[in-house]
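Subject: design request, 56 residues
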């Protein structure tokens, strides 16, 4: 029960209408950087947990 291809295309078209073609790459870049930072933080937290378990 995912979005599917038609839903994804509809979301992209609506985003293009709302933000315009010039702002869309900037927004995508910002979202990508945010996601990268989130993944790195999550990875660091899991590594910290593993390290503390190894010490016990």
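Subject: RE: design request

Done. Sequence follows.
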């Amino acid at each position: 029960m995912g979005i599917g291809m038609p839903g994804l295309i509809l979301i992209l078209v609506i985003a293009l209408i709302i933000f315009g073609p010039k702002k869309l790459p900037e927004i995508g870049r910002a979202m990508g950087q945010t996601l990268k930072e989130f993944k790195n933080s999550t990875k660091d937290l899991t590594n910290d947990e593993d390290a503390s378990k190894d010490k016990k």
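The CA atoms of residues 16 and 51 lie 45 Å apart.
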